[in-house]
């Protein structure tokens, strides 16, 4: 049998010292006097010390009992701090959500989803890293985030995923570009042969565009420019540098203002799926599961009950 005393026996001993009565101490712990007496006797056997003087008038701490009681009081304080600290850690952990997302999702979808989630969980703290899809997958694979959101068409190895939205890449040019006045769609072969302004390697938008052309049996031309942000790509297109394939989600303001023009395409599938990803051995729960449900509902509402993918 272990010589270590249990905390409840120490707590009972401290109460005897505080109230000068084993009966009162038993009442405070919600037990009977005989049961409390047996617990103290077991504590005495474990420590090899007599802690109480028992008589027909009651029980009182011995000198050894008073010394052990003072030590026990400090032990109980430390245990209470441990329990409170663990409780605080649980509260802190339950109030945190670690996310990473590709730029398109982070700028145009996640703010609404997170806003809806925080209305349900006002104490929730959300940490969000904005990275390209390849880096988001790396973080999810290593368990460094609760959820990631990506737009990459690549096969996801060592990850679990769920579709949260649909998107479409749009070919855009400046108003002065020859394609802006074109009446016939740009075919897949012409698109593949045209150097485009693109994001960096690892970007989901670039991966989707290149994969669409490869699926059509075509090899994309070398990029005209490689830029590290969607805003930089949009600006370069608007100044007439060249065409680009960009997410429909990010182009609405420019298309509405006329600073960019959409050019119809044919023979290439530019629809894409936006997905949440997470570690293969994890199961989304709590705030993670709530965010997934919100994203899925928002995606269904955006498509509408009778929406069909655009070609």
UniProtKB/TrEMBL annotation:
It comes from the Bacteria. The keyword Isomerase does not apply. InterPro entries: LysR_HTH_N, LysR_subst-bd, WH-like_DNA-bd_sf, WH_DNA-bd_sf. Keywords: DNA-binding, Transcription, Transcription regulation. Gene3D superfamilies: Periplasmic binding protein-like II (3.40.190.10), Winged helix-like DNA-binding domain superfamily/Winged helix DNA-binding domain (1.10.10.10). Transmembrane segments: none annotated. PROSITE patterns: HTH_LYSR. Pfam families: HTH_1, LysR_substrate. Residues 5-62 form the HTH lysR-type domain. The keyword Zinc-finger does not apply. Belongs to the LysR transcriptional regulatory family. This is LysR family transcriptional regulator. It comes from Prauserella halophila. The lineage of its organism: Bacteria, Bacillati, Actinomycetota, Actinomycetes, Pseudonocardiales.
């Amino acid at each position: 049998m272990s010589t270590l005393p249990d905390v409840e026996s120490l707590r009972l001993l401290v109460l005897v010292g505080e109230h000068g009565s084993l009966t009162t101490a038993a009442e405070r712990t919600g037990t009977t006097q005989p049961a409390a007496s047996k617990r103290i006797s077991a504590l005495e056997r474990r420590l090899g010390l007599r802690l109480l003087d028992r008589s027909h008038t009651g029980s009182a701490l011995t000198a050894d009992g008073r010394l052990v009681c003072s030590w026990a009081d400090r032990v109980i304080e430390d245990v209470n701090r441990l329990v409170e600290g663990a409780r605080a850690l649980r509260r802190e952990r339950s109030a945190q959500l670690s996310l990473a997302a590709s730029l398109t999702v982070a700028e145009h979808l996640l703010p609404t989803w997170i806003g809806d989630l925080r209305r349900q969980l006002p104490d929730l703290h959300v940490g969000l890293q904005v990275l390209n899809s390849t880096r988001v997958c790396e973080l999810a694979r290593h368990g460094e985030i609760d959820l990631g959101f990506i737009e990459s068409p690549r096969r996801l190895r060592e990850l679990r995923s769920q579709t949260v939205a649909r998107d479409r890449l749009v070919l855009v040019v400046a108003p002065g570009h020859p394609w802006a006045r074109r009446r016939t769609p740009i075919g897949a072969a012409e698109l593949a042969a045209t150097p485009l302004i693109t994001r960096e390697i690892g970007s989901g938008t670039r991966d989707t565009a290149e994969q669409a052309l490869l699926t059509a049996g075509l090899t994309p031309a070398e990029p005209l420019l490689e830029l590290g942000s969607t805003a930089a790509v949009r600006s370069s297109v608007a100044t007439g540098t060249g065409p680009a394939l960009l997410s429909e989600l990010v182009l609405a303001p420019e298309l509405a203002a006329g600073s960019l023009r959409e050019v119809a395409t044919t023979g290439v599938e530019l629809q894409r799926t936006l997905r949440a990803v997470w570690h293969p051995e994890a199961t989304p729960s709590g705030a993670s599961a709530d965010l997934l449900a919100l994203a899925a509902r928002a995606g269904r509402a955006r498509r509408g009950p009778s929406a069909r993918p655009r070609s």
